[in-house]
Write a structure and sequence with these properties.
Elements: E1 16-18, E2 21-25, H1 33-52, H2 56-59, H3 61-71, E3 74-76, H4 86-114, H5 120-148, H6 157-185, H7 199-234, H8 238-260, E4 276-277, H9 286-290, E5 293-294
Antiparallel strand pairs: 1-2, 2-3, 4-5
Helix pairs in contact: 1-3, 5-6, 7-8
Amino acid sequence: MLGVVPATRVIPAGIIEHDGMLWKPRRGATASAEEFIAARALFIELNNDAVWNPWVREERAADIDEGAEVMSQWQRAEPGHRHLSLKQWESRQERRERQQEQQRAKDEARRDRDKARYDEQRSTARLRLIEVRSRLDFEIAELAGFREGTKYPAMEPKRRANEIEELEQKVERLRAEVDRLTPIVDDPEDVVDQHGWLPRDRREHTWWSYRLVRERKVRDLKRQVPELEAALKATTDRTERRERRAKLAEATTRVTEFVNNTDTAGPMGGGMGGPGGGIGGGDGSMCHWMSALDEAGCGAGVNLKETGGPGNDGKIGSGGGYGGFYCFALTP
């Protein structure tokens, strides 16, 4: 039996294949193929980045314009390829807007119907189940570390055995609670709140709210940093310089933390100064359910002494005490 020889794509001279498409230079083009590919990659990267960081379009405007100019010197080379006309593009946008409006109406109708499904016991059990499962994962990891000897390697054997025994009991208790709560909750993603909102509705709402808050804070801080730098340079008094240097350091740190939060499914909190901690309803009010506490940051931390609220170390739990921290991510 003869083998099947795959068809070979023949690319004419002067044409390149890039990103699954054929391209050729326009008449009078001065940009090389390598320059075109680099410009296109940067253009796409910056515009994708600007979806989450809108200020990129302003700060990298020159790079975006330069990339667009280089890209304009090249065109698609597939036989018969045609760009959408303005009228065709507008029709497509109108169609998308109609589909979005139809989906929005469906979601609103669903939420209105689902108000009748609200079960306070089930809703509370779901939140408890999330907390218990999180704690169970932590205790299982701790137990594995003690058993393998990677957790506190120098620990005395008898003490390690006691720690292992205590952790085994904790894991057993937590698993029993998970088993008790699971049949009450059933599918956690199908538990509505008193407003008919599903968990995915609240996650999406929180994501958009956090995105807007983050953008506003970053823009404010980016405006403040140059002002603080200028004020520091203009100050000669020692005490005043120390105070202004501290304010500048704080503003710089905060803008860096906000900007570095590039994961669009990152900490979804409504807090103005940091990730929000807490649980609540789902009526869309930021103060009601999106933020019960403004944490100092997302770093892992623990403080067994109550110190009266979050500190400045950029970690969860820096203020002491115990609580549950929830990440309202769009995807697991």
